[in-house]
Design goal:
By secondary structure, this protein is α/β, with parallel strands linked by helices. About 15% of the residues lie in helices and about 35% in strands.
Length: about 475
């Protein structure tokens, strides 16, 4: 039985014991019981040794934000070392929500320029999950547009871009270039703002943060130190210290903050590309990748609650949407998200079809997301087959390569099948016209057959609906379909 401890460790008490960021020198504090923090799952992307233009390797961290008596936060992030795997497995859904609060016993906190701020959990100690009600902007950030009430029409979210520099290094892209890449401020046709607006059909809009010191949604902060070889966590906490009283970097003020780091800054003493909080506020991007459309879409996707789009053992191998690999280009590719993640975002929820086992056999046309605005209420853009055995539900979509999705980099104009288990999605198959695949379900006892009987693509007229006709049935129930 889970025990919920309602004791709160006041920030003032923790600060008095030295838990808050120490001096710039390497520092360690002694063990402390009942430390309370909001926990965030952070995905980190690294380049492979062979190329720096694709994000193909990943790792993850758990970050802790210290909590106070009134449930406000100071914004300092600590990397949690020693999160118990069993605890994570049991409470995964709550831990990745962006709003989970835990109580831990720590053996100490270490801080250095090379490794950042690390909070070490005592081995085999209990980790307790506390219940917490999110308020205001924090509550809104943790929910996705698709999870709002049926009358939901549009959500507006503020974004602040922080251009970080040191005495020895600065971000390649200028303030105006960053504003253009994120908001299209100076006429850039493809931006984070424009593509989320396009993929959501106006349901999600990102706007420039406004406050003193902010110009066109971007603020420049210089850390008066040599930053080459320094850890991102150390730099971010220095940025917050410099900004205090001058520029508001609090969670209560903005929905998203994108930190653009200068070249030379490392992550756990490694070269890195980007990382973001799942269901959280922060995205941290390395240098020129702050100008990459796909990298920005990918990191903000994590903030919105999306995980990776993989295939087999490759974490980023599903290149049909933005949660797969990213490319170093500010102009594209233009695409959206795979079927499972589109369903999760809810941009097309009035064109969803749920297929229970009892609903088989099932046959219908699927329409591409790029033509969502041309479809009727009875049409289907994404279909989900509910798998009751805990293996992950199956999502079916027509990956039409046109308009807002014309740059999709795999399975163009084919039916894609993706499995999702609340973690990363897994690409199962893609089918052209007259192709069939079989998927084992129910522990291999049953066999699901998927046939694509027709695909119609009219490249000459964008106002004519393209479609793929799909039929799904269990093997023993195949009695012929009209």
């Amino acid at each position: 039985m889970m025990v919920v401890n309602i004791l709160i460790c006041p920030v003032s008490f923790v600060k008095a014991l030295g838990i808050f960021p120490p001096t710039d020198k390497s520092h360690q504090v002694q063990s402390l019981r009942d430390v309370v923090c909001r926990v965030l799952f952070v995905d980190v992307q690294y380049p492979t040794p062979s190329t720096a233009t694709l994000i193909l390797k990943s790792d993850h961290e758990w970050h802790c934000i210290m909590e106070s008596l009134d449930d406000t936060v100071d914004g300092i992030r600590y990397v949690l070392s020693g999160m118990p795997k069993n605890f994570v497995s049991i409470h995964w859904a709550e831990l990745i929500s962006g709003g989970a609060v835990i109580e831990i016993d720590i053996v100490g906190v270490t801080a250095s320029k090379q490794d950042g701020y690390i909070m070490n959990i005592i081995a085999k100690s209990n980790v307790l999950l506390r219940r917490r009600r999110l308020k205001g902007r924090q509550k809104r950030k943790k929910q996705l547009p698709g999870l709002f009430d049926p009358n939901f029409r549009k959500e507006i979210r503020s974004v602040l871009v922080v251009r970080v520099g040191g005495i020895d290094t600065s971000v390649t892209n200028s303030l105006t270039e960053l504003s253009d890449s994120v908001f299209g401020t100076f006429g850039k046709e493809q931006s984070l703002k424009s593509q989320y607006d396009a993929c959501s059909f106006g349901k999600l809009e990102f706007v420039q943060a406004e406050d003193k010191g902010i110009l066109h949604g971007v603020v420049r902060i210089i850390v008066p130190e040599v930053l080459s070889g320094v850890d991102t966590g150390y730099v971010l906490n220095k940025v917050k210290k410099i900004a205090d009283g001058k520029i508001d970097l609090s969670e209560e003020s903005y929905d998203h903050i994108i930190y653009c780091m200068p070249p030379g800054v490392l992550k756990q003493q490694k070269v890195w590309l980007a990382y973001a909080e799942l269901g959280g506020q922060r995205s941290v991007v390395y240098d020129e990748w702050c100008g990459s459309l796909s990298a920005l879409m990918h990191e903000i996707g994590h903030n919105l609650g999306l995980y990776h789009a993989g295939m087999g053992n490759e974490t980023y191998a599903d290149a049909s949407g933005y949660m797969g690999t990213s490319v170093l280009s500010g102009d594209g590719p233009l695409m959206c998200f795979n079927g499972a993640q589109s369903w999760q975002l809810g941009f097309y929820k009035d064109r969803h079809s749920t297929i229970p086992r009892a609903g088989l056999p099932w046959k219908k046309n699927l329409y591409g997301v790029s033509q969502y605005n041309l479809t009727r209420s009875r049409d289907t853009v994404i279909a989900k087959f509910v798998v009751n055995e805990g293996d992950g539900d199956l999502y079916f979509a027509f990956n039409l390569a046109s308009g807002i999705n014309k740059g999709t980099r795999t399975s163009q104009n084919e039916v894609t099948i993706v499995k999702s288990d609340m973690r990363e999605t897994s690409f199962i198959a893609s089918l052209s016209s007259m192709e069939t695949t079989k998927i084992k379900i129910n522990g291999g006892k049953d066999e699901l057959h998927i046939n694509v009987t027709d695909i119609y693509v009219n490249n000459s007229n964008v106002d004519v609906l393209d479609y793929a006709t799909i039929e799904i049935y269990l093997y023993e129930e195949n009695v012929g379909m009209d």
